[in-house]
């Protein structure tokens, strides 16, 4: 099924080096959830042509790179994270030529492109799994327990709820840490290693600048596949080492991939990167994924999960920076993505708190990830009807009665509002695959553009300042004295103050205001920080 380009084209033009040779160390990377970004053909589903047409918007927003969620050939049992062919584009999203065109257009605009790679599992429609003999060589199969093998091989639970094992017609069982349509690959087989290295080279040859490695902590399982001993295992992810996640053996794979990426980059005069989506129980465990001979970045879910309290935020910032600094890697910061409740809703406090959190994130040393629509202040859609939902965790968790993921990820995946007074708000001509709220007209890109008080213009200004001011991005930071409930972060030439309290608080005037998430009153030598606000000050 692997596709070919419909027309030959020259080697892709690469963007300039940006703010330094290691561009990823302070890059702002924008996540495009492809099916919800922009629809070019009126079928209600976002696609590559739609995304390509909107790239100038992202250039104007001020980001450095885009990360595209999977657009590969897939039955779409889990939004494309069930891949049937890693070298083909699913017809829902276009074809390989559309992918090539998008990459070239992004490079022409000075944007780099990161794509997802899904190595823990494939679709059950992948050619390997459809061949009974190949499947038992390249996936995790085990005999069952019980007198007749009628019980699963162990007590592992799927992240989506229910058992992590499904029995076949032959009587044996295969492992799927996610949906049954997503069988886990057996990374003890060297053919699996060889295939994924070939997949990486295929997309590097097409011009991509890096890979976000899905479930980067999951490819290796503990020897013997031991029982965990109790239920509700999904709640343990990211809190402790589990026999199916964050095993030390995954680092051998990441070292091999780093050698491939560095070698390819040296041979082609490019800088290409790997980004780990890894849930680890501590910042120190997470830092193992970004040692000098492993991947370049890892998502910082510890920060994402931190409550809106000054003491908690300071602890996780300190721990994150200490862990990554110990291995010479940049820290990454993220507040929202396609798997979690949008931070406008999750943090409580509404839009004011979300705006403040964003300015805090963009003031921290390292790289930042933005999720599509957060620049519009979009809230989580919490009232989707059950019949509209498509998250497999919703159906599997409810059916099994077990506590996997909550199954409400669709609420952060509702298609973007671009313009107009009513749905689909310019998303496309044929509606949207998930219903959009009828009160989003004030949140569209068109409605917010040019309004200095809008969240979109706050993001544009913040990203412009971050690019212009040498003290922001990668580099040093220090804490300055501040009242309880307030954070004061010093960067070279810039001070960032964050009031996490629910009321205004006065501080000595730190400098000249550069940008604030809410209006700041200044009276002589005193500044009144609004509740749930963040302000950047020029200090020299």
From TrEMBL:
Pfam families the UniProt entry points to: Alpha-amylase
Listed SMART domains: Aamy
InterPro entries in alphabetical order: GH (IPR017853), GH13_cat_dom (IPR006047), O16G_dom_2 (IPR045857)
Domain of life: Bacteria
Transmembrane region(s): none
Positions of the Glycosyl hydrolase family 13 catalytic domain: 31-409
Similarity comment: Belongs to the glycosyl hydrolase 13 family.
Protein name: Alpha-glucosidase
């Amino acid at each position: 099924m692997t596709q070919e380009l419909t027309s030959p084209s020259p080697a892709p033009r690469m963007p300039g080096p940006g703010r330094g040779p290691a561009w990823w160390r302070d890059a702002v990377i924008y996540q495009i959830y492809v099916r919800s970004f922009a629809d070019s053909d009126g079928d209600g589903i976002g696609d590559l042509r739609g995304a390509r047409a909107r790239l100038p918007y992202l250039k104007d927003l001020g980001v450095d790179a885009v990360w595209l969620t999977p657009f590969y050939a897939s039955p779409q049992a889990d939004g494309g994270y069930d891949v049937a062919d890693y070298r083909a584009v699913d017809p829902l999203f276009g074809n390989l030529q559309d992918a090539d065109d998008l990459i070239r257009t992004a490079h022409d605009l000075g944007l780099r492109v990161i794509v997802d790679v899904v190595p823990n599992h494939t679709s059950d429609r992948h050619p390997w799994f459809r061949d009974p003999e190949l499947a038992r060589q390249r996936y995790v199969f085990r005999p069952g327990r019980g007198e007749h093998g009628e019980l699963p091989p162990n007590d592992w639970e799927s992240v989506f709820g229910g058992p992590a094992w499904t029995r076949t017609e032959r009587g044996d069982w295969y492992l799927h840490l996610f949906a049954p349509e997503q069988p886990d690959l057996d990374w003890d087989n060297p053919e699996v290693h060889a295939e994924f290295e070939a997949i990486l080279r295929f997309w590097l040859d097409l011009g991509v600048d890096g890979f976000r490695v899905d479930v980067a902590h999951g490819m290796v399982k503990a020897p013997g596949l031991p029982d965990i001993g109790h239920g509700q295992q999904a709640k343990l992810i990211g809190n402790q080492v589990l026999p199916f996640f964050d095993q030390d053996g995954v680092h051998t794979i990441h070292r091999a991939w780093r050698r491939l990426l560095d070698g390819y980059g040296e041979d082609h005069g490019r800088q290409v990167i790997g980004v780990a989506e890894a849930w680890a129980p501590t910042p120190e465990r997470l830092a193992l994924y970004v040692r000098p001979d492993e991947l370049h970045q890892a998502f910082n879910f510890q920060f994402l999960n931190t409550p809106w309290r000054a003491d908690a935020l300071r602890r996780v910032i300190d721990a994150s920076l200490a862990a990554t600094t110990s291995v010479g890697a940049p820290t990454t910061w993220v507040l929202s993505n396609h798997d979690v409740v949008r931070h406008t809703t999750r943090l409580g406090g509404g839009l004011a708190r979300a705006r403040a959190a964003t300015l805090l994130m963009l003031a921290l040393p390292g790289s930042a990830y933005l999720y599509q629509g957060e620049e519009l202040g979009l809230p989580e859609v919490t009232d989707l009807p059950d019949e509209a939902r498509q998250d497999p965790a919703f159906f599997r968790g409810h059916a099994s009665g077990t506590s996997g993921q909550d199954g409400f990820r669709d609420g952060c995946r509702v298609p973007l509002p671009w313009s107009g007074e009513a749905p689909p708000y310019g998303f496309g001509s044929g509606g949207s695959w998930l219903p959009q709220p009828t009160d989003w007209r004030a949140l569209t890109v068109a409605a917010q553009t040019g309004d200095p008080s809008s969240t979109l213009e706050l993001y544009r200004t913040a990203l412009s300042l971050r690019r212009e001011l040498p003290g922001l991005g990668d580099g040093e930071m220090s804490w300055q004295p501040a009242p309880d409930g307030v954070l004061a972060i010093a960067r070279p030439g810039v001070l960032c103050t964050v009031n996490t309290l629910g009321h205004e608080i006065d501080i000595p005037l730190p400098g000249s205001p550069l940008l604030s998430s809410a209006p700041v009153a200044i009276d002589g030598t005193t500044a009144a920080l609004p509740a749930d606000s963040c302000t950047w000050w020029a200090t020299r």
